[in-house]
Amino acid sequence: MPVDTHITDPALTAVLETSKAAREQALALIDLVIQEKTAAGGEQLPVEAHAAISRQQKLLNTNLAHLRGLHRAAHFRARETKGQTAEARHEVDVLHLQLQNLYYEQRHLEGEIENCESFNHKYQELPLIPVEEFLSFHPELADADENALMVARINHERTEREALEQQRLELQKRKQKLIADNKKRRDDLASLDKDLEKFIDVRDPC
Which helix (H) or strand (E) holds 129? Predict the structure, then answer.
């Protein structure tokens, strides 16, 4: 398969076409020289032959000069394209590195999420009332998500425990007061017994 079938760039196509034309021009010049020398039979070439060969040489030199210009331009474009390719490759490398960092961060976050989900939280050990019972007290939370419902149940448990603690403290105060009252009454009874004994001793000296 010819090489020029793979080339689509207009500048490179022009280089190939000019190169092909210069090659054909050179071959035609060689054929002309051979033909004129054969016709001269070893004699000096006539002026017309020299003129024809000179014209062909000028055309060939023109094509070669044009080809050198196109080659130089193609070389500069190739160098520029090489620089652009290097910059694009660098950008791709940077993006690839960023993508790898994102994959690493994603795997790290997925691991952290899994650890958090499997962590044995203390709130899971709380003796909370069943969800159905809680929702019977708070029907407005029937459509709440699992997290909001758990927070509400914990707050409910805390409120209930605080109320029970308040009741316990009040009962403890009442208990202390009753104990103090009973002690006072025992002391009063003991004092009364002593007074009664003195009274009996006074009334019955024997």
Answer: none
